[in-house]
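Below sits our specimen:

——
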Amino acid sequence: MMDFKKFEDTLQLWGNLHFTGIELQQRDNKSEIYATGTNNHTQSQLYICTLSTDVASHVQLKQFRTWLHRINIGKAKRRLALAKKE
């Protein structure tokens, strides 16, 4: 199971991408979870994990969406603070 810090670190490896959603895709009777976003008119998908049960995948999906929202709010606050300093 992934914790918040590992999730955040994974997204930050792709710092130039802005992820706006978390999607669930079915593949080979398993659920794959991806962070998604659009940058410069290009759709991006970042693989996060694979889960074998529907219940676990929906629980994890909800958790990742909450964490992504928290990360994006933090980024927006930092950008606003930097803009105020300039």
About this structure: The mean pLDDT is 91.
